[in-house]
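Researcher: Predict the fold of Lipocalin-like domain-containing protein.
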Amino acid sequence: MKKRIFLIALCLTLGLGGCTIGTDNGIFEDWQAMRDKLANKEWTRFYRNDAELEHPASNVQEIWIFEECGRGTIRSIMIYDDGQEKESSYSFSWILTVDLVIVIKGSSYWTIDDLTDERLRLYYTPNDPIEMPGQPRKYYEFFRKQF
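Model: Structure tokens for Lipocalin-like domain-containing protein follow.
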């Protein structure tokens, strides 16, 4: 547990400082490679949002940008069945742990299943998947747009 807290603190410190990790340790090289693939790109996913009591059905496009400094933005474009559109955007903080889990501060944990130059596949959980294994999770797939 102490090791995990230390590594998260290390990742947060280096991620927020914009530094790279200069070490021969393979774990940190893998971490750096994943972070480089993830950061400074637009990651987009499309999905159908079914109607609920207060919200009509819509098609949704989410665009996530993970900046190297540990900040990010999400832009959401909803196109309702009646043709109306609604766009919103939010800022967030994030870190990538050595377990290759993206921690979105205050909201979610994304365990990376596969990350290539063009595609990000992950499992979303509301709680830390390392500390709470076996919890329900959702599969998400994003496609990359470089800018």
